[in-house]
Structures are given as C-alpha cells and as structure tokens.
C-alpha cells in the first residue's frame, strides 16, 4: 500500500499506484515546462508556486477518473496540467485580492514582487493553459471556458456579497461552488473524457467532482476554526483574522439573527471587530469552537461529501472507484 496525493490517499493496487504516480510525475514535469519563458524573470515568477509544492488534488482526480477508460490516452496528462495551471493562476490573483503575505509556506508573489507582477503572472499562467487546451480540441476549450466563467463569477459574487433578501449561506455555497467546485468538476470530467469513458460515466464523475470540491472547501472552513497549527499546517483563525466570513461564521450569524441570544450577538460583534490582537483572536476561536454553529458547518461538509460518495454508486466496482470513495471519507475526516 502506497500513500499518494492529498489527505494521504492510500492506493492498494499496484497497477493503479503505478498509473497514478507516473501520471502525477508527468504532470509535474509538464507544469515546469509550461511555466518556462524566454524571459528569466517571468520563469522565476511563474514557477514560484509550482516549486512551492501543493496537494495536486486536481491532477490526482484527473488520473483517477481516467481509470474508467484508457488511462494512457494522450490527452490525460496535458488536461491535468491545464487544470493545475488554472488553479495556480487563481492563487496569484487571490493573494492580490486578499493582500496575502504567504502562500504554501513561501512568500506570496505579490509580497515579493508587487501586485502588478502577481496579476500579470497569473495571466501568463492562464495563457499557457489556453495554449495547451488548443491542442486538446474545441470541446475541451469550451468546457474549460465555462468552468473559468463560473470561477470568475464566483469570485465576483463573493466580492459583491449577497443581494438584499438573499440567504447569506445559500449565497456563500453558490460562491464556493463556482470558485472551487467548478474546477474540481472539470478535473474529473477531463480525466474521464480524455480516457474515452462512456458519456454516462463522464457525467457521474463530473457531478461527483462538483460536490467533492465544495466539501473540500467547507472542510477548510471548519479546519480554520477547529484545528490546531500542527494538524492543519496553517495558523488557526487565519480566515477569522482577515475578516473572511466562512461557513461557521455564517451559521453563527444565522443563529444570532434567528434566536437573538445575547451571547451569540456578542460573539458576532467580537468576530466583526479587530482580531489582529492575539488575545482577541484566541477568545473568538475558543467561543466559536464551543458554539453549535461549528457543528452545523461540519454537518454541511459531511452532507456534500456523502452526496459525492452516493453519486459513485452506479459506477463499476474497481480500485479507482474505491480511491474516489476514500477521498470522500478523507474530507469527512478532515472536518471531523
């Protein structure tokens, strides 16, 4: 048994392990090649986050979905490079919007070179992804364009906030479906489609990816509140300190508006105040961890992961299906 990919996914089949590891190695080489430029500075900036590492969650899903057809088909690795390049490009842009100083344990591109270079580097990665897509055919271009539109729409909706009368939780879930779920869904779709899998299988895996991607993001929301730094690899309360209203906070606001309890309203005020002070942040974390809103956010996460798992039921039993089920279990475990 070998552990590969995010969450310590265990692969118990030698053939699947070989295929997945070979695919991910090829993707890594493809990412380095795609981020090279004749201008050394552009290469340095474009490879900054590639070399910082990452889970390679989306390429892993491409490789697993490809097991339902021909896993050696020529379009599989390039399509995995496309989705990871797109993901990386969004990180450059996100860090500018969030004024982030650190990404994946290294200095963010915007902190190192400034916002203009970070934005333009993200654009460069989008351009390189489009160049690879052109060789994969018009259907692949259309699918990626639709996903990118959803991703950008999600980002804009997040920035704009919910319209008057819109449930903030529903708005947030729509935002996350666009920002995260869309590209994870495309990862599964590309893997199955490029492998020549049956259209019904492609559709099932696309829907699976959408729900798994959303569960993955919601698990991060829970971890930001519930975990310690050793467990999660990031400082607890990072989103709270930056004033990002993640799902536990939205569930708290929902409860405060519904029930009007003084302690809930007081916690909302604390979270909406200045949390740059370590003592205030620690108090906010302690109180939110003890609040039912956190458990509600966990249940929301588990629901999407279970929905993803249920979608896999019609697929033939195989080691790739077992691995996809295990990813659902891993998301639940992270949020547990």
UniProtKB/TrEMBL annotation:
Transferase keyword on record: yes
Parts forming coiled coils: none
Presence of keyword Chaperone: no
TM ranges: none
One Pfam family hit: polyprenyl_synt
CDD domains, A to Z: Trans_IPPS_HT
Obligatory cofactor(s): Mg(2+)
Alphabetical UniProt keywords: Magnesium, Metal-binding, Transferase
UniProt xrefs under Gene3D superfamilies: Farnesyl Diphosphate Synthase
Superkingdom of source: Bacteria
InterPro entries: Isoprenoid_synthase_dom_sf, Polyprenyl_synt, Polyprenyl_synt_CS
Matches recorded under PROSITE patterns: POLYPRENYL_SYNTHASE_2
Family in the record: Belongs to the FPP/GGPP synthase family.
Protein name: Polyprenyl synthetase family protein
Species of the source: Streptomyces antimicrobicus
């Amino acid at each position: 048994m070998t552990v590969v990919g995010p969450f310590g996914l265990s692969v118990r089949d030698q053939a699947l392990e070989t295929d997945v590891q070979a695919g991910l190695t090829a993707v890594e080489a493809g990412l380095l090649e795609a981020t090279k430029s004749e201008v050394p500075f552009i290469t340095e900036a474009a490879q900054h986050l590639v070399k910082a590492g990452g889970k390679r969650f989306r390429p892993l899903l491409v490789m697993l979905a490809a097991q339902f057809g021909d896993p050696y088909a020529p379009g599989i690795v390039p399509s995995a490079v496309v989705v990871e390049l797109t993901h990386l490009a969004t990180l450059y842009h996100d860090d500018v919007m969030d004024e982030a100083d650190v990404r994946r344990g290294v200095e963010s591109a915007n902190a190192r070179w400034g916002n203009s270079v970070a934005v333009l580097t993200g654009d460069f990665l989008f351009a390189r992804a489009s160049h690879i897509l052109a060789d994969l055919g018009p259907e692949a271009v259309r699918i990626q364009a639709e996903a990118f539109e959803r991703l950008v729409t999600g980002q804009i909706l997040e920035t704009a906030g919910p319209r008057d009368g819109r449930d903030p939780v529903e708005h947030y879930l729509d935002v996350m479906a666009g920002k995260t779920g869309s590209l994870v869904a495309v990862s599964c779709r590309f893997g199955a489609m490029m492998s020549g899998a049956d259209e019904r299988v492609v559709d099932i895996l696309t829907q699976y990816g959408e729900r798994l991607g959303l569960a993955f993001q919601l698990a991060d929301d829970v971890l930001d509140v519930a975990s310690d730094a050793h467990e999660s690899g990031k400082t607890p309360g990072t989103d709270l300190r930056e004033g990002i209203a993640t799902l536990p906070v939205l569930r708290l606001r929902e409860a405060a508006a519904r029930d009007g309890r003084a302690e809930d309203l007081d916690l909302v005020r604390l979270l909406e105040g200045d949390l740059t002070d370590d003592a205030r942040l620690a108090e906010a974390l302690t109180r939110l961890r003890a609040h039912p809103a956190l458990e509600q956010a966990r249940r929301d996460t588990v629901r999407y992961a279970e929905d993803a798992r249920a979608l896999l039921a019609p697929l033939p039993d195989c080691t790739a299906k077992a691995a996809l089920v295990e990813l659902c279990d891993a998301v639940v475990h992270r949020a547990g």
